[in-house]
Amino acid sequence: MSSCSIKARIKKADKxxxxxxxxxxxxxxxxxxxxxxxxTEKELKAHVAFYQAECYRVLNNSKAVNCYQNAVRYKxxxxxxxxxxxxxxxxxGKYKDAEKNYAIYLEGHPDDxxxxxxxxxxxxxxxxxxETSRYKISNAKEFNQKxxxxxxxAFIGQSGDALMFTSNRQExxxxxxxxxxxxxxxxxxxxxxxxxxxxxxxxxxxxxxxxEGLYGEGEESENENxxxxxxxxxxxxxxxxxxxxxKTMYFxxxxxxxxxxxxxxxxxxxxxxGEWAEPQEVKIFNDSTITIGHPSICATGDTLYFVSDAPGGxxxxxxxxxxxxxxxxxxxxxxxxxxxxxxxxxxxxxxPDGSLYFASNGHPGYGGLDxxxxxxxxxxxxxxxxxxxxxxxxxxxxxxxxGDDFGITFEGNSQNGYFSSNRGxxxxxxxxxxxxxxxxxxxxEGIVVDxxxxxxxxxxxxxxxxxxxxxxxxxxxxxxxxxxxxxxxxYVLLASARxxxxxxxxxxxxxLKDSKTYEEKFTLAPISKPVTMDxxxxxxxxxxxxxxxxxxxxLLVKLLNDNPNITIELSAHTDFVGxxxxxxxxxxxxxxxxxxxxxxxxxxxxxxxxxxxxESKPVIADAAxxxxxxxIPIGQVLDEPFILGLLPQQQEICHQINRRTEFKVLxxxxxxx
Length: 673
Hints:
By secondary structure, this protein is α+β, with helices and mostly antiparallel strands.
């Protein structure tokens, strides 16, 4: 008798599962699982474990993983257990374990798209997580309430100042007593209704209000122990959408009759004088038993996107579309295999620019439902049964996580809005998040200084770009400057100041995916005195340039190109160590080596005069040298008597300063006349 009772309860649970009452079914499976013998009734125990896991998976309950493990342990016969086990593991972020179970399932189903997509995702998620988009996301706390689910936000029209969303928060009667409703046999939670909010003059969302005048109030009781509350069904409202003017809404509605769930339907209501009129059912299919929901209307109001399990789909829940003809919605069409998979595609949202956003757990993703973007593929040919070809992209992080991410809405034509997610929620509660796509900004900022690193006040800068930019600006007193530039352009920025040579920089903003600030430091060389080039190096005791000199030499080439009307004296200097004649000869050859490099780099020979001074022109210390080496006074000549009076280490520093390559401007009118 006990065995018969257990099997009867399992049969009852199976029936509840078949009609979608997952919460009630899971409770029965949980109660009977321990009473099924693991020795004599392994097949039945595996059955209970699997369907308990299926209920938990649909309900986003983490217990699904343990139940699938039990189903595998007792050798559940259908290999689908490995596919769903893998999906449950992904939902918990256990990607390596999920990949193993996808591999087992694919051994018997090598062409299954959902399994291949899941396996592919598990292999690539580590690199996906490194590539976040520019979107900024934050929890929209003004819409969320503890221990309740709040999801599927939708702007009421394109103004962006009113919004409606779905929530199962409890309402209160007069006096503050909460209204009690029958928990849903599907979710075990309170029934869902639509709530609205509006922005005040300061742009803040005002108090959340129950959408009045619509279906969804259901049967209720003020008595928590009222037995009738468990005998009748409760109406529920789901995802909604609005026409561009905000005057007509479409919403998902489910109202059990005599406790029997007849599936969801789409209803519509129009608003006049602030009140919503009595809703009317939107009839799309002739078969009234077909479930439809999650409506999204296009900007022109003549195409409705929705979710259905209608025949002719690809399995699970698919996204469809229908066209408005007068007052009737006709020609329902499945959006095809690029959008729909054998898993679930839900919560469509058609953006005014024609892009379709939706949630899916069938395409490669991070786990659970991910948000995807689909753009029309203009190069593909549509077929009769599939009117539009699409290119589908995962929205990536930070939109998508291993949890459920879904129900997106946009504020008018912008890329800002709200979406739903249960990320980080141990009990699976959904919350609403805001997202913002900051405008990309490109800047050039920097400073203009002299060769002693002192700011040059009132330096002039000129910006020329292939986008037509030709602007001038003046550096601030501290030598700094800052200006905006455009995306996908190439620029030349030229810095100049009276008494100094020009210097330029080039940059481009092509192929940038985020804002960027370019930093430029212009060090202008004076015209009136020699300039030491600190990064020109020679082989020891020789005149051969070392590879380390390449950077400094190229800077000199650039300076001469930036100032095409100057001629320079290129001089080399040595310390006083050794024979003075030999030092002079060495310095002459070193100066000539630099000149030869410049000529080879395209600088005209007539602009260059090489001179070797040997040890005859020791450095006269300036403020920059004194700042770096305090033992050298400003104005001190680094000659032999001074150096020999120093400590050995200080002497070597002075020798290094004297061993230098310099240039000075001879003329500024080369080829001007």
